[in-house]
Design brief:
Elements (H helix, E strand, L loop, with lengths): L2 H13 L4 E3 L5 E3 L2 E6 L4 E6 L13 H9 L7 E5 L4 E6 L6 H5 L16 E5 L3 E6 L12 E5 L4 H9 L11 H4 L16
Antiparallel strand pairs: 1-2, 3-4, 4-6, 5-6, 7-8, 8-9
Length: 194
């Protein structure tokens, strides 16, 4: 994944939300859906959080949720049934224990403008993306009022700007800068101590 892809992912995670999402411990938590439950082996019911606003000030509707899910690659395996303006049933073809996990990757967007409901909204210019705190966010306010993300493709220039104090956070650190071998095995498993 290149620096541009990493930046796009970071922006989406802060500007859009799914029905559910992960917390810092990778546990599924409510987002746009305030609650959910399984009705049987293949049917789940989600209850939408009331009063959720998009960044353009429009109110989230069930139609936005349904259209966002239908636009995803997951849609071909799902049957969506809108029971009313707050209750959505999702049926899978076979029992799917990973459905909640899969739903974390489907961002809900406003059907016309494409904006999200996340804690930050996006402003973009040439080489940087500015995320500004969305004060009408339904949940806890973003920690920072404004975050500036710079897209610096050259890994050495990016690292030097960080070392010079021009950047506060660095992603995409090349292994050779850290003195690590290129073939360093980076897959690891975090085991919680009980």
């Amino acid at each position: 994944m290149g620096i541009s892809d990493q930046l796009d992912t970071l922006v989406q995670l802060n500007t859009h939300e799914g029905l559910v999402g992960f917390d810092e411990y990778m546990q599924i938590q409510p987002r746009i859906a305030k609650s959910w439950g399984s009705l049987d082996d293949t049917t789940w019911q989600f209850i939408l959080r009331p009063g959720v606003l998009f960044h353009d000030g429009s109110l989230l509707t069930m139609q936005d949720v349904v259209l966002s899910i239908q636009a995803s690659t997951l849609a071909q395996d799902l049957i969506l049934t809108q029971k009313n303006e707050t209750h959505l049933q999702i049926q899978t073809q076979t029992p799917d224990n990973l459905l909640l996990f899969k739903l974390t990757s489907i961002p809900i967007s406003q059907r016309i403008t494409g904006v999200g409901t996340g804690p930050f909204y996006q402003n973009t210019s040439d080489q940087q993306v500015v995320l500004s705190r969305f004060d009408q966010y339904w949940g806890d306010a973003g920690v920072f009022a404004r975050v500036v993300l710079h897209q610096i493709e050259d890994k050495f220039e990016r690292t030097q700007q960080f070392l010079d104090g021009d950047l506060d956070v660095l992603i995409g650190i090349p292994p050779e800068i850290l003195g690590l071998p290129d073939n360093l095995k980076t897959d690891f498993q975090l085991i919680a101590k009980g």
